[in-house]
Design a protein that fits this description.
single chain, alpha/beta, FAD/NAD(P)-binding domain, 3 domains, five-stranded parallel beta sheet, 25 strands, 27% strand
Length: 446
């Protein structure tokens, strides 16, 4: 019977634990988590702030008790203070009792997750500068911003955009600040972001784009956010600047990417035998480029970690990689994307092209319909599909990103995607589905 230490337990930790116990029910699996919860769906924080969550307790899909029932030895409020990758020796401290513990294991599974990006900006640790990452952050944001009149949101990616949406809908005065020149600039090209910026303006959100924050100054009643172009005062500021791997525990022990993500192979094995990593702490295979990348998404964490049990003794099931497929609902708009944008390709050294169409998602003879903006990104040399983006008030268009994700994973060309059999029924689609329209245009067929 082998002994396993799973270090960290959000999405990857939960699924790694379950997969190991399913494959090896007689093994002794110890789970170490410094917080008092597991499996928190942090993507729901903004929705909870906007009172769109039925019960915040349902933002957890597992629990320490559920993992214990599955056969794990669960150590909550426990901080792993050292872990030797070579010897598998782990030492920890109970954060409630200060009791120390240590043990040798046969395998280590590193699922320590990520931490918020916190640049060395003066005042960033002020009392009115809030984070948006874990359950404790969610509680604080919900409590403090409920009575606030104004909020400055720093970062116009998914997290910041969702917060700006929900807070403005709740009647708060909101300023959305980002150093990049467009909202959601890493997720969508300008054909989509231009429309989203107009929507923010229509809902009263002040956009401070292309502005780098240089200081925060908190007082008893407000915080002033100073940028290289101006200053904005609000009751609170919320940071949504992205994430970095939380892997300090293994510095100098495991091979890592420059940002600290632990490098893993297709079987989730690290550079040290018997040590596995998954989720936000690990590198990932990004299929549009065929190279390793860092893409901290819950979907990636779940799919990686679910294979740990199958591969922990010997390599059995390879991880298939990711297209970073994602979506967000902002006001009445649904936005979904998969793969690369043109700009994202350029950052990675790829020269890509895109084609965009805007058309109604179903026939005009229906009593209601709505326009869809569909963008297809492709390699002009190989003709392979590399990405897609969709924007509409029709929520179901988000599923189109899933369809193109499959095309990218299978290295389809725009010509092949243009010939895929997509349904026509007036309730759901035009005779030529918008995925077909944009791929046919990219293929030069229309």
């Amino acid at each position: 019977m082998a002994k396993v230490a799973v270090i960290g337990c959000t999405h990857a930790g939960v699924f790694a634990t379950v997969s190991i116990l399913k494959a090896h029910p007689d093994w002794e699996v110890h789970v170490f988590e410094r917080n008092d919860t597991v499996s928190f769906l942090s993507c729901g924080i903004a929705l909870w702030v906007g009172d769109h969550v039925s019960d915040p307790n349902r933002m957890f899909y597992s629990s320490p008790a559920a993992l214990a029932d599955a056969g794990a030895h669960v150590h909550m409020h426990t901080d792993v203070v050292s872990a030797d990758a070579a010897t598998k020796h782990v030492e920890w401290t109970d954060l409630q009792t200060d009791e120390k513990g240590a043990c040798d294991f046969d395998y280590l599974v590193v699922t320590t997750g990520s931490k918020p990006v916190l640049p060395p900006i003066p005042g960033i640790d002020g009392g009115r500068v809030l984070h948006c990452k874990n359950w404790d952050d969610a509680l604080r944001v919900k409590e403090l911003c409920g009575d606030a009149d104004s909020v400055a949101v720093i970062g116009a990616g998914y997290i910041g955009s969702e917060l700006a949406d929900q807070l403005s809908e709740a009647g708060k005065r909101v300023v959305l600040v980002d150093a990049l020149p467009r909202v959601l600039a890493k997720n969508f090209d300008a054909d989509v972001t231009d429309q989203m910026e107009r929507a923010f303006a229509d809902h009263g959100v002040e956009l401070a784009l292309g502005e780098k924050v240089v200081a925060f100054e908190s007082s008893d009643s407000a915080v002033t956010v100073t940028t290289d172009k101006g200053a904005y005062t609000a009751d609170y500021a919320i940071l949504g600047l992205g994430f970095l791997p939380r892997t300090d525990l293994f510095d100098g022990q495991l091979d890592m990417m420059p940002n600290g993500a632990i490098r893993v192979d297709e079987y989730l094995r690290t550079s040290v035998p018997g040590v596995f990593a998954a989720g936000d702490a690990a590198s990932i295979l990004f299929n549009p480029t065929g190279k390793e990348d860092y893409i901290p998404l819950a979907t990636n964490a779940v799919r990686q970690a679910s294979l740990v049990g199958a591969n922990i003794v010997e390599p059995t099931i390879a991880y298939a990689g990711t297209q970073a497929t994602s979506a967000v609902q902002l006001y009445e708009y649904s936005l979904a994307a998969t793969g690369l944008t043109v700009e994202g390709g350029a950052v990675r050294g790829l020269s890509l092209e895109s084609t965009t169409v805007t058309e109604n998602y179903r026939p005009d003879f229906m009593l209601t319909t709505a326009p869809v903006t569909a963008t297809l990104v492709f390699d002009p040399e190989t003709r392979q599909v590399k990405g897609a983006q969709f924007f509409s008030t029709e929520p179901d268009v988000a599923q189109a990103a899933n369809a193109v994700s499959i095309a990218i994973a299978n290295k389809m060309t725009v010509e092949q995607l243009a010939q895929v059999d997509l349904l026509f029924q007036p309730n759901f689609s035009n005779p030529v589905n918008y995925i077909g329209s944009v791929s046919m245009k990219a293929a030069g067929l229309v």
